[in-house]
Structure formats: structure tokens, C-alpha cells
Specification:
Elements (H helix, E strand, L loop, with lengths): L32 H11 L7 E5 L5 H8 L4 E6 L2 H14 L5 E5 L2 H6 L7 E6 L7 H11 L4 E12 L11 E9 L2 E8 L1
Parallel strand pairs: 1-2, 1-4, 2-3, 4-5
Antiparallel strand pairs: 5-7, 6-7
């Protein structure tokens, strides 16, 4: 199992303070503790018992934070084999490998298939900043077509210079917050 390499850590819950490894290279942009604190402060009431889907999972830090705070299960989707190895090691390190499943897949293909039988309560969509907004919109449209539980939250992280995605029918963005070069949008399933 790789040793944790950096400043990514779980900030609250049962795995609080545990360090997580990050995939090598510049393709993964770990979310800062400041942004994570603010975001999860907003999401905390929805986490107990939640089913989580983490798209473009990177290190798995977002799903792991949700599991640490009371989510019951998570599916983490990542196309990069090296990142998937890191995710699996992180899940084992914090003891969540029995409540989470890492899947190697292209996100658009994964959500383009029929929705699973049980809907998700919380979805993280954190694609590379250079991913075209139109592709993010396709992912959101797929999610809104059966992947989301009523009242589910969908968290989208984009570069502040990116065009804000248009929410599809069934989603609205009541909360948009900028943090330096990052914009976090929290959509609600209607």
C-alpha cells in the first residue's frame, strides 16, 4: 500500500486526521481544507445514511470525507488506473473498503448507461478543469435521468473562468460559491 504523500487529509468524522495519498502528476487537484470545510458544513445534515457517487474521483478524498461523516456507502468512478490504485489504497487505509467500491470507467460512459436500481443522495462531479462545460452538462443531464434520489445534492467543482454549466430539467443550482480559482456549485434535485 502506498504511503500518504501530502496534505490531503480527512477533516472530520470517524476518520478525522487520517492522511490520504494523491495520484502522482498534476492531473489531480486536491480540494483545499478551507473549501472542504465550507462545503461539508453545508452538506453535513444530508450525510447520515447517504449513498454517495464520486465522479472523476481522483484520490477519493470527497467520498471518503462523506463516509467519515456518516454516509453509508459510496461508488467512486475514475478512468485512470493509477488513480484507481490510490483510491483503493486510501479506502483500505481508512477502513472504508467494505462500504465503498472503486470503478474504472469513463464518467460519461458510466452515467450514460441505465441508472442503478437505488438512487444516490449525494454526487460529486469534479472533472479536470479543461473538460468542456458541454461534457459536464451531459453528465448532469444523465444524472438527472434516474440516478438521483429526491432532494439529492450534486456538487460540481469548476475553474472560475469556466462557463457555469446549465442545469438540466430536474436540477437547480441554488448555491454557487467562489474560492480563489475554484467555483463550487451545489445543485439540488427537484
Amino acid at each position: 500500500m502506498p504511503k500518504p504523500r501530502g496534505g490531503v487529509r480527512v477533516i472530520a468524522g470517524s476518520a478525522r486526521g487520517r492522511r490520504l495519498d494523491t495520484p502522482p502528476g498534476s492531473g489531480t487537484r486536491p480540494i483545499t481544507d478551507r473549501v472542504k470545510e465550507s462545503l461539508f458544513g453545508h452538506l453535513d445534515p444530508r450525510l447520515p445514511g447517504a449513498r454517495v457517487l464520486d465522479l472523476y474521483a481522483g484520490s477519493g478524498a470527497m467520498a471518503i470525507e462523506a463516509l467519515s461523516r456518516g454516509a453509508v456507502e459510496a461508488v467512486l468512478v475514475e478512468r485512470d488506473a493509477g488513480a484507481l490504485t490510490v483510491i483503493e489504497a486510501n479506502l483500505t487505509r481508512v477502513g472504508f473498503d467494505d462500504r465503498a467500491r472503486a470503478v474504472r470507467a469513463e464518467v460519461t460512459a458510466y452515467v450514460g448507461r441505465p441508472a442503478p436500481g437505488v438512487a444516490f443522495d449525494l454526487v460529486f462531479v469534479d472533472p479536470p478543469f479543461d473538460l468542456p462545460t458541454e461534457e459536464v452538462e451531459r453528465v448532469l443531464a444523465a444524472l438527472a435521468s434516474g440516478w438521483l434520489a429526491p432532494g439529492a445534492s450534486v456538487v460540481v467543482r469548476r475553474h472560475r473562468k469556466s462557463r457555469v454549466p446549465e442545469p438540466p430539467d430536474g436540477l437547480e443550482f441554488p448555491r454557487v460559491k467562489a474560492y480563489g480559482d475554484t467555483v463550487v456549485l451545489v445543485a439540488t434535485a427537484t
